[in-house]
Design brief:
Elements lengths: L5 H10 L2 H22 L17
Length: 56
């Protein structure tokens, strides 16, 4: 991707590797969504909205 610079290395040491954390979360979300989609392949396009029924 790019060559690390001293300031980048220092920021990673101080704050953690934020891009790596974000990448990991994005991959986790993608896996979770893939499982949900695989569980319900007949779901309507655009999703289904929750509409609570009125109390009687």
């Amino acid at each position: 991707m790019f060559q690390e610079t001293p300031i980048y290395s220092r920021l990673v040491a101080e704050r953690g590797d934020v891009p790596q954390v974000v990448r990991g979360e994005a991959e986790r979300i993608q896996r979770d969504l893939g499982r949900l989609i695989a569980m319900n392949p007949q779901a309507p396009l655009g999703g289904q909205h929750y509409r609570p029924q009125a109390a009687h």
